[in-house]
Amino acid sequence: MDLKKYDTRPAVVPIKKIVRENDIVNTYVFEYPLGAEPGQFVMLWIPGVDEKPISVAYDDGKVFWLTVCKVGPGTQELFKLKKGDKVGIRGPFGTKYKFDRRDNLALVAGGYGAAPMYFVANEAVKKGCGIDFLIGARNKDLLIYTQKVMGLNDVRLHIATDDGSAGFEGYITQVLEDVLGEDPEINKVFTCGPEPMMKVVGDICAKAGIDCWLSIEKYMKCGFGVCGQCAVDDTGELVCKKGPVMSYDYVRKLPEFGKYYRDAQGQKHYFKS
Ligand SMILES: Cc1cc2nc3c(=O)[nH]c(=O)nc-3n(C[C@H](O)[C@H](O)[C@H](O)COP(=O)(O)OP(=O)(O)OC[C@H]3O[C@@H](n4cnc5c(N)ncnc54)[C@H](O)[C@@H]3O)c2cc1C
Q1: 263 CA to middle of ligand 1, Å?
Q2: Hey, whose CA ends up nearest to atom 42 of ligand 1?
């Protein structure tokens, strides 16, 4: 029996390097054999604060990266840490984006979603998949991972910004419609980003009859199916176990998808439309 699977104690790991992506996003590099696959996440323990779920952005078996956006008290404390400071890592947890060498993928990222999508691209190029990588942001200063994606062979990068300061002026979902229209070989769309964006991506795919998988974020406390915090309405299924990567066919039926999320106390918060 593989007991490691059931060991939920955090590994205490020093931060090897911190890469500033922009004013509110950093990438933390760790030397540790995590063994994650694209789509999976870890519970990152920030000493004295809390544990936070964060998707893996890269893992080569020796080194892994986490790309974190500063949004609230936990991530603010993380941003105060320096190279050499220690954090706790539990995982990897959760489901994966699945692909094989016959697949032609469109990867649609919004905000820090570019990081987990980069992990998909990095592994999918090794399998010889065709890849269109689409990144959207409000403006050019908020775009992340574009240089890293350009460093991958045979990956077509598409950029959109709301204000037109880089790439197409408008939403990345408009670019997705064009890309799908131009390339009938694309058979899977993976997306990671703000829920309202992923809903539009899913609807475009449903209309085009293309398989769509997305990573959904729910407030999580344990990460491995014990606390029940990430149960979704109405099925009660736990996102940390059934997800975070789920098919749009499943997610679209959830009454909360694209409408609201729950905080640590279970209180509902509606997304701004
Ligand atoms: C599976 C998974 C993977 C994740 N991967 C990443 C990642 O790679 N990088 C990253 O930066 N973050 C990621 N997150 C989100 C990250 O866990 C949270 O941003 C973090 O916990 C915020 O902690 P905090 O204490 O800084 O802020 P909090 O006080 O917990 O929240 C800050 C703000 O975010 C809002 N918020 C909280 N939960 C949600 C939600 N579910 N939907 C919408 N808004 C919400 C709150 O209203 C609040 O305004 C992931 C979450 C999950 C579940």
Answers
A1: 10
A2: 261
Per-residue pLDDT of the chain (273 residues; tens, 9 = 90+): 565 666 678 999 999 999 999 999 999 999 999 999 999 999 999 998 989 999 999 999 999 999 999 999 999 999 999 999 999 999 999 999 999 988 999 999 999 999 999 999 999 999 999 999 999 999 999 999 999 999 999 899 999 999 999 999 999 999 999 999 999 999 999 999 999 999 999 999 999 999 999 999 999 988 999 889 999 998 999 999 999 999 999 999 999 998 999 888 889 999 886
Of all protein residues, the one whose alpha carbon is nearest to atom 4 of ligand 1 is: 54
Q: Is residue 186 part of a domain?
A: yes
- CA 152 to centroid of ligand 1, rounded, Å: 28
Provide the domain count of the chain: 2
> In this structure, are 66 and 185 located in the same domain?
no
CA of 211 to the centre of ligand 1 (A): 26
Closest protein CA for atom 47 of ligand 1? 263
Closest atom, ligand 1, to C-alpha of 116: 8
Closest CA to 194 of 247, 239, 135, 139: 135
Which residue out of 30, 37, 51, 71 has the highest number of ligand 1 atoms within 8 Å of its CB and is therefore the one to mutate?
71
Q: Which residue's CA is the nearest one to ligand 1's atom 43? A: 261
- Same structural domain, 68 and 169: no
CATH number at residue 191: 3.40.50.80
Question: Model's pTM, two decimal places?
Answer: 0.94
- Of 41, 68, 93, at which residue does a domain stop? 93
Q: Would you say the C-alpha torsion 129, 134, 140, 141 has a positive or negative sign? A: negative
Q: Could you tell me the sign of the dihedral formed by the alpha carbons of 21, 240, 247, 266, in that order?
A: negative
Q: Is residue 98 part of a domain?
A: no
Name which of 19, 30, 25, 41 is nearest 144 in CA terms. Answer: 25
Is there a single domain that holds both residue 75 and residue 111? no
Place of tokens 């959904």: 216
- 218 CA closest ligand 1 atom index: 41
Question: Is residue 140 included in any domain, yes or no?
Answer: yes
Q: Which domain holds residue 78?
A: 3-93
Answer yes or no: are the C-beta atoms of 55 and 24 closer than 8 Å. no
